[in-house]
Description:
The complex is a heterotrimer. By secondary structure, chain A is an all-alpha fold. Chain A has helices at residues 2-45, 62-68, 71-104, 112-121, 124-135, 141-147, 160-188, 192-200, 205-232, 237-242, 254-264, 268-297. Chain A has two domains: 1-45, no CATH class; 62-297, MetI-like fold (Orthogonal Bundle). By secondary structure, chain B is an alpha+beta fold. Bound molecules: adenosine-5'-diphosphate (ADP) and magnesium ion.
Amino acid sequence: MGNTLAARRGATYELQQGYRLMMLPAVLAVVLFAIVPLAGMFALAFSDYHLIRGTNWEFGWRNFVRMLSDKRLMNSVYVMAALSVFGVIAQVLIGSAVAVGLQKITGRWRVGRVLFLLPYAVPHVAVALIWLSLFTPTLSPINAFFDLFGVTVPAFLTSQWGAIFAIVVADTWTNFPFAMLIIMAALQGISPDLEEAAAIDGATRVRTFIHITLPLLTPALLMITLFRFIDSLKHFPMIFVMTKGGPGRSTQATNYYAYVQTFQNSNVAYGAAIAVMLFLTAALISYHVAKLNQRVTT
Amino acid sequence: MKRMLKTVVAASIALTASVASLTAKADEVNVLMFGMPYTNGLQALAADFEAETGIKANIDVVGQDVFENRITLTFTGGTGDIDVVHTPVIQVQRWIQAGWLQPMTDAVAEMPGAADILAGPLGAYNVNGDQWALPFFAGVGLMSYREDVLEAAGVGVPETWAEMLEIAPKISNDEHAAIALRAVPGQGFNMFIFPMVMRAYGGSFFADYEGGDLTPAINSPENVEALKVYVELINEYGPEGAGNFNFAEVNAAAQNGQIVFAVEGTGIISQIVDPDKSRFAENTGIALPPGGPAGRSPAIGVHGMGIPASAANPDLAAKFIEWAVSAETVSKIALAQSFPDFTTASVAENPDVVAKYAAIHPDFLSTRVAALDLAIGHYRPLIPEWPALGQAIGESVNAAINGLMSPEDALEQAEQDMRDILGL
Amino acid sequence: MGRIVLRGVQKDFGADTVIPPLDLEIDEGEFVVFVGPSGCGKSTLLRLIAGLEDVTAGAIDIDGVDATDAAPGKRGLAMVFQSYALYPHLTVAQNIAFPMRMAKLSTAEQTRRIDDAARVLNLTDYLDRRPGQLSGGQRQRVAIGRAIVREPTAFLFDEPLSNLDAALRVGMRLEISELHKRLKTTMVYVTHDQVEAMTMADKIVVLNAGVIEQVGSPLELYNAPRNLFVARFIGSPMMNILEGRAASEHGAAAIGVRPEHLSLSTASGAWAGRVGLSEHLGSDTFVRVTLDDVDEPLTVRAAGERHFNVGDTVHVSPDADKLHRFDESGLRVV
Ligand SMILES: Nc1ncnc2c1ncn2[C@@H]1O[C@H](COP(=O)(O)OP(=O)(O)O)[C@@H](O)[C@H]1O
Ligand SMILES: [Mg+2]
């Protein structure tokens, strides 16, 4: 009896054990560095943890109720929406265009692939510094160049939409390669026969792209949009370096506002409540996009 | 419920902080600072401290945002992995209130070197009768100006902001703007510079700070007038894009000859007048920042070192701080780094130090001392809520500069924000 | 309609000449099969006709019009790929409709043709499925359906059956042949399988390293292979080739005899040898016989079930009328 049991366990049992063991570090890491801090964040959000006033642990939903009437928060949500929507659209469009272009290019120009990846490797703070100087008229070579012809390039960072534009540009510059990579991988997964079949079926290049390539890229496009959108909810380094949330509060996105509440205003609990809201937003979007993705791919 | 919440928070904070505290050892002192010339110089001298005392000093110098994150975790978690912490005077009230620091009154009483520390900056850390930190840095507001441009225009150095406004149109041309001032919002950015104008016009943050009446008064007519001056100087007489300038942009504009006047902290001014850094330095002079009807109030920013309440080795920490602000150590740093902002008085008598900064600019050290004399300790209010107030007011000032609001509306909004933050 | 003429067509990939200049005429309504070993350039030649590759030199006329530089979609051709190349995100009906949509045919006309094609190809029940939900044979039919509805001047097939299992392959072979009979449209069909070529073609083009070895009807190729390459390539099992003494007896450098043109006797015959392994197919038996002075064993076809023991001595005689003779350069001697 014991013998047969041992025999049954056999190789697959050991394999399974091995696989589980392989997962252990990842599970531990998730529990320790994601779930525990997340639980802490939720707990804080339902408290009145304040560095100056002291802490009241019985606070219930009051942080969330306060959020409903917080005009600065509302403003930050609009700012975040503008930065995210424009940024993600630009990144996905430019990333896809470059990916499609690179795929068609043959010969020596293929080195371009590596070149286009570079912006993704630059740390965000450095990216922000680069674009801050490009958008600062007294420092920018762009302004210097146009000054030669007596053309004054306006200062972007001192107007509301100019500053949003500038941050979107910086964010797009550093993040479009991510979209490009994913689209390149997706394009590789599309059999070249399909394009040829479409060509024979009488489709022009444009119509082939619209009717064949694009629909086949949809899952990848959805995925990048989701990833970039969620990541864009965490907007911080660009704002911190380029505008400090200005002019006024024009680029104070929600994550930046949470930082102000936590670190400047000492209101750790309210900052946590905002973070919880951002987290739930991201989770909600992920869930819906995952469902949408399923519908598209099957 | 309460117990559970507390446990979860403590667990999550402790988890993150404990990773850092693994390094804490009994015979070592752990120091956390953020990057500036003095702290970089100090880090380079860690071996000297060990040679003198046999105690190993782990000096961590990080960026300011990383710093804020780390101390918040360490302090709230009470993990004791930091023995000495960079303590800006602007934060000290808040940290005391939050119970994050331990007083070092007794330790300082036994330090012979403490008498060598400038009284003003030292006093800034004396709160509720206790000494909470020792200063190593006092930056003050100064003004640099292009002597050649003023001479060519036949105008003198302005004594007041009103004179500055008069002179400005005469020296603005295609080559250079008249002046650049910090505009980006933040208590350490535009709110380091703007109060100089405010106070010159007789404005203040509160109804009566010294008398203890902390009713917000940021919307006073004096402050509105001051803000109008600030806005006009930046928008009419500043370079293109000045509405988003921070100290780095002001510094660059001055070094590139794009502006005539800069009103900045000593750290930046010392670079603007340094012939090694700026090719206009030969023709650049130094003066006190302009004043106004209510006198002259140079900006002041003090940084020091304190001991966290949870520090594992407070005695070693005190010993380290004593060494770090000693005349010998500070002189070494003043010579190795661009660091004229020392608060250890006798360093100013060190002939090498004097020679070094005289070579940069003959008036530099003397003007700095004159400005320090004029500066008031509560240039920015020394209350725990200041970081929040400074942030909110800074946002309003920036909004006025960039035309999102009129100066009146901007300060009205700042007034409201102050009330909200103070719970009035 | 459907006459394709290649004049001096050449194709280089970089420095490699895959197809040296080549002339070929495909007549209207013909079922032409390009056959040859893998890598010999069959697909390339087909793709040149389709317009998926540009010719390096030469010209391609379709129905008397120079189509050398015409876009693939403008040549009036339909193509069925080895991979089927169905659009995975479209339903069967949408896949079939695609070329008509591109041609902006009326919806009514589209529906009519889809229904017709689906009926012929037994796809009526699957019109709403996606390609991923179909079997290999069904996908093949969809690909054919998509080709049919265009009403092309010629069909191009690139190894359309090689992804199917043996039984399906035979069925589809018949279906395509029947389709050809019904439509009477020119079909150009690429395969490396000579059985497909023999069973389907009106005209076979044997390719080797980009060069046409012979063009002719299946029986012409079978009965009169122009050279040793064609002789070996056409026919199953492969033709036996003998050199040396046996060949010089017939005044040739090499002689070839198909297994079915050899007779086996235990008593006497032209050549003596020893029996090797036998393959019993039921209807036939293929016996390997190693001749005394020849390395390669001969394959002999014996009708019905014949049993020999390995090592038995036997005699093999060729059918003198069916003997193929080749000269030194491998060309047929008449
Ligand atoms: N796009 C290409 N680039 C370079 N060489 C190619 C390309 N396509 C085919 N070839 C080469 O041309 C030769 C003929 O290929 P192909 O026409 O596909 O052969 P077949 O279809 O007869 O198996 C092969 O040697 C192949 O490697
Ligand atoms: Mg092929």
